[in-house]
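Render this sequence as a predicted structure.
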Amino acid sequence: MMPLAVPERRTMSMNISRPLIYLVDDHPIVRQTILDWLRVEFSVGSCRGYASAEELFEVLPVNAPDLVIMDVSLPGMNGIDAARQIKAMHPLIPILILTIHENPQYARDAIASGADGFLRKDRVYSDLIPAIRRMLAPGLPAARL
């Protein structure tokens, strides 16, 4: 996982055991698999999936999450550009970018967009849950992912 600073975090739900997590991934099987796993780890109703950044932006103004997990490669607006827009609207929402790409430029672009974490999909099973817990930990000083 690429080291990125995680700002001091407040959670909107104020309940780290039941954070509201939005996952944006255009591959239905990947999205559903990760959602199922997150729902076991956190809470049945606390994780929602979207196939595109545009779908996410339909609900974001009404119900801001505690964390956004987003793929880099999405139809329409890509995850890097979406992260930049999310941070402009909600600077305190942490964003974790996922990718299958090995090119380190994606990590640099994610950092530049304001993303708080970057994780390659081949590391999801070992690193995703610990990364989420660190990103959502209230009152902790900046951490390294």
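Summary. The longest helix spans residues 28-41. The radius of gyration is 13 Å.
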